[in-house]
Amino acid sequence: MVDWKKKLTSRKFWAAIASFVSMLIIALGGAEETGTQITALIMAGASVIAYIVGEGLADAAGAQEGGAESRQG
Fold first, then answer.
1. CA quadruple 1, 44, 11, 22: dihedral, nearest 10
2. For a FRET experiment, which of 26, 42, 50, 59 has its CA 20 to 30 Å from that of 69?
């Protein structure tokens, strides 16, 4: 089974996606500048997604720890 949380926070995953899209644009006759701009947009979006997922995981872990402490106290 694919661990999507881990994939969405992986820089290697997003670099592979950006590279594929960029090369696809160029292969289909698009300008290299267009490919570069779209790659930059994908990587910027990936940074935001990775941050959001990472913070969500950290918040979830903190909530679980807090819940365990309140039950023990």
1. 90
2. 50
Query: pLDDT by residue (tens digit) across 42-66?
Result: 999 999 988 898 888 888 888 877 6
pTM, two decimal places: 0.67
- Cα 68 to the chain's mean position, in Å? 30
Angular region, 2: left φ>0, alpha ψ -120 to 50, beta rest: beta
State which amino acid sits at residue 43: M
In whole angstroms, give the CA distance from residue 45 to residue 25.
18
Residues in the chain: 73
9 with 54: CB under 8 angstroms? yes
The 3-state DSSP class for residue 45 equals helix
